[in-house]
């Protein structure tokens, strides 16, 4: 055999990025579907497929809004209801003696209209119904039993004794069921052990101070114990009909008081929004999750040239714009419009970090957490590595440079402005069996205000 020069190719894993989960989030929301694992929702699924997996539920609605705003994949974690939805009569135009009521436990928020189309009592008269702004149902004979189940809603129409006259009409509004805090914490307990990659956990539906405080603690656990650094995105409840804007603003002040966490984003503003051709009133958090999916980790989702909210019709509640500056200062994520251009935008993508923190904005947290996740991967490959103590400085430097490759890549890709490492001297590797070093990064700057001095001048002077 002729001898020659022979090469062996060794893959050190420092070439192409191993990033997974960037822009991906988990949604925790109420649904009648039972699952001990998150269900994968992808951008290729239509409304029917999403509802087939998650039922007619607030969780399914949130997934659709996030998909329409930029997500390509979501892990949806259904949890049992904690508080049942309510049913309330809204409008009634009845001349017959028979009473039409709606009973049951609604799976989701709905408006149900029931109209008598043929006069008569049970087994003689007829009716139609419509759910939300959907198509009118086929004409049905009033059942002899007096009850008719509206499929996939948890609702039943109940026809009492008497005669129902043609054109009698009743409209009901139904609120969605709600999760309790314990159900959310139990879901987080399951998520911590899952081998999936994600950046955010979105808690679907209104929540308050008690849950935010619990999530502030959970956020530290996810970082320090479970090695899954992430941001929790929460939603503020809607303004009640009996509240004024002043009272609602005071409610927001009280809810924020004492809650401090870089791992918590709370969305205050709501939207009148087009969902699959229908106008809905939603908290903007589901839309914001879609914007996070579209944005690079260092990019503000308030960037006007990139992130106008498609399908947004109006910021709610009406008049909240007068309070937006203060709400933003409190740390909530709010929406705004700019005079001179069309569209609705995120004002600032804020966190509940302490005043003066480096991590007051989600883009700062995302960039840092990406560096943490990626350097953890490279550092794990160096666990139990031998250190040559005869030349400790050079040996440690080689290890540190290897671990820091993902951060250097982030600098190259303009996710960080710059970065450096510091290796303290006189480390006792034999005694402590521990390597300690620092990574110091400079984030990408974001223009949040522009000041222009405009004036005339005389070119002859």
Layout of secondary structure:
Elements lengths: L24 E6 L8 E4 L4 H8 L3 H12 L3 E7 L7 E7 L6 E5 L5 E9 L7 E6 L8 E2 L5 E4 L4 E5 L9 E6 L6 H11 L8 E7 L2 H16 L6 E5 L9 H12 L7 E4 L2 E6 L2 E6 L1 H10 L17 E5 L7 H7 L3 E3 L8 E4 L13 H19 L11 H12 L1 H8 L3 E7 L6 H4 L5 E6 L18
Parallel strand pairs: 1-3, 1-12, 12-13, 13-14
Antiparallel strand pairs: 2-3, 4-11, 5-10, 6-7, 6-11, 7-8, 9-10, 15-16, 15-17, 18-19, 20-21
Shape: elongated
Low-confidence sequence ranges: none
Question: What is the alpha-carbon Rg in Å?
Answer: 28 Å
Overall mean pLDDT stands at 93
Q: Please give the count of helices.
A: 11
The spatial strand order of the largest sheet comes to 2-3-1-12-13-14
CATH architecture of the largest domain: 3-Layer(aba) Sandwich
User: What is the CATH C-level name of the largest domain?
Assistant: Alpha Beta
| Count of separate structural domains | 2
């Amino acid at each position: 055999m002729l001898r020659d020069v022979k090469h062996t190719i060794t893959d050190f894993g420092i070439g192409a990025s191993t990033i997974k989960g960037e822009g991906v989030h988990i949604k925790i929301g109420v649904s009648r579907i039972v699952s001990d694992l998150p269900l994968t929702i992808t951008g290729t699924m239509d409304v029917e497929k999403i509802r087939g997996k998650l039922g007619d539920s607030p969780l399914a609605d949130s997934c659709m809004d996030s998909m329409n705003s930029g997500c390509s994949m979501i892990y949806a974690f259904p949890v049992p209801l904690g508080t049942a939805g309510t049913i309330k009569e809204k409008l009634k135009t009845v001349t017959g003696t028979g009473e039409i009521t709606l009973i049951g436990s609604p799976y989701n928020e709905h408006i149900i209209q029931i109209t008598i189309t043929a006069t008569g009592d049970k087994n003689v008269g007829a009716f139609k119904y419509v759910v939300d702004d959907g198509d009118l149902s086929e004409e049905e004979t009033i059942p002899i039993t007096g009850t008719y189940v509206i499929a996939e809603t948890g609702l039943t129409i109940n026809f009492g004794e008497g005669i129902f006259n043609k054109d009698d009409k009743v409209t009901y509004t139904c609120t969605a069921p709600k999760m309790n805090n314990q159900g959310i914490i139990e879901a987080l307990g399951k998520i911590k052990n899952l081998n999936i990659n994600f950046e955010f956990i979105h808690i679907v539906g209104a929540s308050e101070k008690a849950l935010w405080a619990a999530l502030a603690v959970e956020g530290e656990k996810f970082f320090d114990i479970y090695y899954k650094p992430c941001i929790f995105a929460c939603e503020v409840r809607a303004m009640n009909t009996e509240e004024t804007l002043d009272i609602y603003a005071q409610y927001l002040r009280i809810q924020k008081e004492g809650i401090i966490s870089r791992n918590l984003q709370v969305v205050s503003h709501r939207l009148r929004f087009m969902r699959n051709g229908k106008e809905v009133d939603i908290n903007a958090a589901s839309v914001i999750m879609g914007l996070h999916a579209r944005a690079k980790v260092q990019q503000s989702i308030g960037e006007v040239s990139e992130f106008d909210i498609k399908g947004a019709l109006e910021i709610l509640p009406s008049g909240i714009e007068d309070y937006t500056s203060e709400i933003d200062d409190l740390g909530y994520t709010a929406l705004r419009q700019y005079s001179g251009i069309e569209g609705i935008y995120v004002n600032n993508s804020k966190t509940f970090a302490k005043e003066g923190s480096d991590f007051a904005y989600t883009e700062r947290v995302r960039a840092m957490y990406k560096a943490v996740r990626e350097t953890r991967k490279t550092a794990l490959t160096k666990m139990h590595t031998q250190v040559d103590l005869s030349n400790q400085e050079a040996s440690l430097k080689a290890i540190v440079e290897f671990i820091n490759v993902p951060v250097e890549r982030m600098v190259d890709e303009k996710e960080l402005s710059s970065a450096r490492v510091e290796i303290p001297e006189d480390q006792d590797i034999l005694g402590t069996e521990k390597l300690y070093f620092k990574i110091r990064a400079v984030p990408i700057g974001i223009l949040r205000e522009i000041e222009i001095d405009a004036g005339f001048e005389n070119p002859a002077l």
